[in-house]
Amino acid sequence: MSFRVTESTQLASAQRNLQLSAQRLNQLDEQVASGLAISKPSDDPAGAATLLDLQRQLAQNAQYQRNAGDGTAWLATAGTALTSMNDTLNQVRDLTVQAANTATQTPTSRAAIATQLQSLKQTLLTLANTQYQGRSVFAGTSDAGSAFNADYSFNGTAGSSVNRRVGADTTVRVDVDGSAVLGSGSSSVFALIDSIASAVSSGGNVGGQLTAIDAVAANIRGAEATVGSAQNQLTGATSALTTQATTLQTSQNGIQNVDAAHAILEMQTQQVAYQTALAVTAKSIQPTLMDYLR
């Protein structure tokens, strides 16, 4: 059994082939002009889906890097304040030792030491209320402007912590609990210095207060070590995130960006094929009487 291929069928087939060739030529032209292998999902559905996932991962990575940067700044602020606190408390200790030697102290020298102690206490209180971008780094999750009030009561949220997420399963604490380090109210280091200054002024023995000072100093050093460990963790996380971002970007570029040399060569080949197809089609489809009657 034989089938007859009509001229209309031939014409439809030729038009379809020419349209497909023209579409491919247009696609290559767009790729060369834009530098993108995928301009719309229909260009490569699978590739477009992969690109969307890569873009999601890149956006997430960028957020983690911002979190790490913010956390690093929090820790740097807290660490600097703790270092200054430690230095200040060392001065308090030195003055206390000096005042404990009552045999060499006169009322005038005791008054001077007491004044210096009060000044150092105020310095500690200022450091304890250190802020980063309007938030106290020693007040936990509280948005209060200061961690400690004038009466030395803790103004923050005891036991709470400020964390920054730097990975799907990784968070880093970036604040310091001021009440745990410096105490609160009558049991705070500020009240301790007040009592030492008062005893110095009255000529009392302050040697027994050295143990309490050393306990606060140990708290500060412990907090410094914790902050340093968190900073190291963020440094490692930042390095890993930077490497991951580079890898993701490379993958995205490999899928999204066109190989210009290859695309130009393919476009030239496609142009030759298209022109050849036009010529062959014109010759293969014979004119009919209807062509002359138009």
UniProtKB/TrEMBL annotation:
Main location: other
Subcellular location: Bacterial flagellum
Gene Ontology MF annotations: structural molecule activity
Keywords assigned by UniProt, alphabetized: Bacterial flagellum, Cell projection, Cilium, Flagellum
Flagellin N-terminal domain segment(s): 12-142
Classification via Pfam families: Flagellin_C, Flagellin_N
Record keyword Transferase present: no
GO BP terms in the entry: bacterial-type flagellum-dependent cell motility
Signal peptide (UniProt feature, chain positions): none
Limits of the Flagellin C-terminal domain: 210-292
Family: Belongs to the bacterial flagellin family.
Protein name: Flagellar hook-associated protein 3
Annotated source species: Leifsonia shinshuensis
